[in-house]
């Protein structure tokens, strides 16, 4: 009991660096295919540096470019969303029973705390040190990830080592495929809805579109759930020319995701239903904010990919997935 209390206190005190380590390991695993591509043509050290530079320039530049847009849009949402909810409550008894204005006010205040101008100013003091630490950790996991995996496999009995390697390779391949498709889908949905909401002149179009794009990662229902704030603003205008396009686009995007994208992704990678990602995202948001929600869902997909690979290996024990050369789990 004393040891359990000691370990619990240790984990609680070290939650931030442990979270950084897990997040950096995830990023390094997702970057492994890009590193492998550069490795085939360049020395290993140069390939590592080029991989990190590519990520920093693309993702870092894009993030810096949208920071001000996000802050301005969050301010507009905080100003206009409660008023829109109040207007809907005037003519809708169900909205009054639901306490729509109160719930919307709580939501936008939480959003401002997580992503608004105040949050960015508060976080700016520790941003540089955080980037330095996480950058070093990512570099470490990229450079030594294969050795860590090989060392872990060497701790397994020889009789089971091939099976663990086989299951791990299959799970990582499916996990990466699912995450890559999700990232592409999130980007495409965000861009499409940003243009559409801007065209019909809704307030804070980028944040509304980004909300839809992020929640589109929740299968089957995410686009409709993420589209509720945009639909709320459209309904507050009481203009069919704004309400109908938003509703039609949400329904069309959700139907395309459910009946076309989801079927192909699930067949090629791993099946992830809507309930678990939504629950994990809500818990992660409450515990660690936006990063906790994102990495929580990513790790959930990895767990589901492992369980699915175990099931498939038990059903077909002679099945051997393709392995990338001498890298059994691709880092």
Tell me about this structure.
This protein is mainly α. The chain is 85% helix and 0% strand. The chain contains twelve helices and no strands. It has helices spanning 2-13, 15-39, 44-91, 93-98, 100-115, 117-154, 158-199, 205-215, 222-226, 228-237, 240-268, 275-315. The longest helix is centred in the N-terminal third of the chain and has 48 residues, at 44-91.
Which structural traits does this protein have?
331 residues, mainly alpha, disordered C terminus
Mean pLDDT: 82
- Total helix count? 12
Low-confidence stretches: 320-331
What overall geometry do the principal axes of the alpha carbons give? Answer: globular
End-to-end C-alpha gap: 36 Å
Sheet having the most strands:
none
Structural class: mainly alpha
Helix and strand sequence: HHHHHHHHHHHH
What does the radius of gyration come to? 22 Å
Beta-strand percentage range: under 5%
Task: Bin the helical content.
Answer: over 70%
Extended strand count: 0
Provide a quick synopsis of the model.
By secondary structure, the protein is mainly alpha-helical. It contains twelve helices and no strands.
Secondary structure: elements and pairs:
Layout lengths: L1 H12 L1 H25 L4 H48 L1 H6 L1 H16 L1 H38 L3 H42 L5 H11 L6 H5 L1 H10 L2 H29 L6 H41 L16
Helix pairs in contact: 2-3, 2-6, 3-5, 3-6, 3-8, 3-10, 5-6, 7-8, 7-11, 7-12, 10-11
């Amino acid at each position: 009991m004393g040891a359990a209390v000691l370990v619990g206190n240790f984990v609680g005190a070290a939650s931030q660096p442990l979270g950084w380590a897990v997040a950096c390991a995830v990023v390094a695993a997702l970057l492994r295919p890009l590193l492998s591509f550069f490795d085939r043509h360049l020395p290993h050290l140069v390939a590592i540096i080029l991989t990190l530079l590519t990520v920093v320039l693309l993702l870092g530049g894009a993030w810096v470019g949208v920071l001000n847009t996000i802050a301005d849009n969050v301010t507009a949402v905080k100003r206009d969303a409660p008023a829109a909810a109040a207007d809907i409550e005037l003519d809708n008894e169900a909205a009054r029973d639901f306490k729509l204005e109160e719930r919307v006010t709580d939501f936008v205040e939480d959003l401002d705390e997580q992503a608004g101008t105040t949050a960015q100013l508060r976080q700016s003091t520790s941003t540089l040190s955080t980037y330095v630490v996480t950058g070093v950790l990512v570099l470490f996991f990229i450079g030594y990830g294969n050795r860590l995996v090989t060392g872990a496999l060497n701790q397994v009995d020889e009789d089971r080592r091939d099976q663990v390697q086989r299951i791990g390779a299959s799970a990582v391949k499916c996990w990466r495929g699912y995450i890559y498709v999700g990232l592409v889908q999130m980007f495409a949905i965000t861009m499409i809805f940003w243009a559409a909401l801007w065209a019909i002149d809704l307030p804070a179009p980028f944040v509304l579109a980004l909300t839809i794009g992020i929640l589109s990662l929740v299968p089957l229902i995410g686009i409709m759930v993420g589209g509720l704030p945009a639909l709320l603003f459209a309904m507050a205008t009481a203009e069919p020319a704004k309400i109908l396009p938003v509703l039609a686009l949400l329904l069309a995007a959700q139907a395309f995701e459910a009946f076309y994208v989801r079927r192909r992704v699930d067949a090629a990678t791993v099946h992830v239903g809507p309930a678990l990602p939504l629950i994990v995202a809500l818990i992660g948001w409450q515990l660690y904010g936006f990063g906790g929600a994102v990495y929580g869902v990513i790790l959930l997909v990895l767990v589901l990919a492992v369980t699915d690979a175990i099931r498939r290996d038990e059903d077909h024990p002679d099945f051997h997935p393709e392995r990338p050369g001498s890298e059994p789990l691709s880092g």
